[in-house]
Amino acid sequence: MRMSRSTIGTVFVAGALGMTLTALAYPAMLGVQNTSDSPSRIIANTRYGPLTEADRDFVVKVRSAGLWEYPLGEMALKKGSTAQMKEAGKHLIVGHAGLDELCRKIAPELGITLPNQATPQQQQFVETSAAQSGRQFDTTAANIMRVTHGQIFPSIAKIRANTQNTLVRELADLANDTVLDHITVLEKTGVINFDQVNFQQTTPPKLPKEQLTPPPPQAGAPVVALTPRPDLNINTTSPTPSPSTG
After folding, report:
1. Cβ of 136: how many Cβ atoms within 10 Å?
2. 152 with 179: CB under 8 angstroms?
3. Do the beta carbons of residue 44 and residue 232 sit within 8 Å?
4. 139, HSE (Cβ side, Cα atoms, 13 Å)
5. How do residues 223-235 score in pLDDT, each as one tens digit?
6. How would residue 195 be classed by pLDDT, with cut points 50, 70 and 90?
7. pLDDT digit string, tens, across residues 63-76
8. Which one of 17, 41, 50, 86 is most buried, counting C-beta atoms within 10 A?
9. How far apart (Å, rounded) are the C-alpha atoms in residues 67 and 97?
């Protein structure tokens, strides 16, 4: 049976998207050699408040998200077939540069080691999108990112509600605004398949942990920084809702 390009794109999104927010096994932090199954376990007492496993994993996940969504934003700016897709690309670039800057600022204060590469699954998202062009690129890239942003949104709220660490709280505040902005601009592209997105957000396929974990940085390697782009003149902290009709 032959499959259309649009069908192939849908199959990829349905089959390859896993729960980006699965707890990361990132033991080389804070002297912790093993992680437990209790996200609320306090792993360090800092002058900014206690740091839990969930807090640490959240910082790592925000950093990891930027390492693939920022380059995909650059790709959307270049390859997007509509003004709306290019606009989404600008928001992804600026938003993740801001989040990355805050991650790099607070990580040393909390003793958290940041990855320099996205997870294997996230790298595959970029490669799959890069292989498309025109309208198919827009559809593939926008739907992948709408699913992952939809998955992380509830987790941001949970961290914000529960964390006792003021630096993690600051990151959660910024992430909440940024992710809401990105969801909004992605929806404005007009290519989101909401039925498929909602299904994938709530029924992600189970992938091996190594596919969902960013590789640890090499010893002594400088921390990769995402380049700020004030020249794009984009505000990602106060999204404008899409107008409704009917």
Report:
1. 18
2. yes
3. no
4. 18
5. 999 999 999 999 8
6. very high
7. 999 999 999 999 99
8. 17
9. 10
Q: How far is C-alpha 245 from the chain's CA centre?
A: 30
Q: Are 91 and 147 in contact (CB under 8 A)?
A: no
Instruction: Report the alpha-carbon distance of residue 23 to residue 146 in Å, rounded.
Output: 20
Location of structure tokens 């189970």: 206
Length of the chain: 246
d(CA 199, CA 197): 5
Q: By the 8 A CB rule, do 200 and 17 touch?
A: yes
